[in-house]
Design a protein that fits this description.
It contains two helices and five strands. The chain is an alpha+beta fold. The mean pLDDT is 89.
């Protein structure tokens, strides 16, 4: 099971695997940002709240693995 990670570490690891993933700051609801992969039209909202140290829960990390077809051990 993935552990909890900070927002900036999550984005860094996702972009290392999928270079085409974009972070859209004006697309998410409220203080969320949208991770978007134009190659496969996948998108996922991440809470940001203007804080790069915001902790992303393990459930969201599992969703990111599924939505962006990432390796299972990317967040370990």
């Amino acid at each position: 099971m993935p552990r909890k990670l900070e927002y900036r570490e999550v984005v860094k690891r996702v972009r290392a695997q999928r270079k085409q993933v974009e972070v859209k700051t004006r697309r998410g609801k409220g203080s969320h940002v949208m991770l978007f992969d134009p190659e496969c039209s996948a998108h996922y909202p991440l809470p940001h709240h203007g804080n790069d140290k915001r902790v992303i829960p393990s459930g969201m990390l599992k969703d990111l693995i599924r939505v962006f077809d990432l390796p299972e051990d990317i967040f370990d």
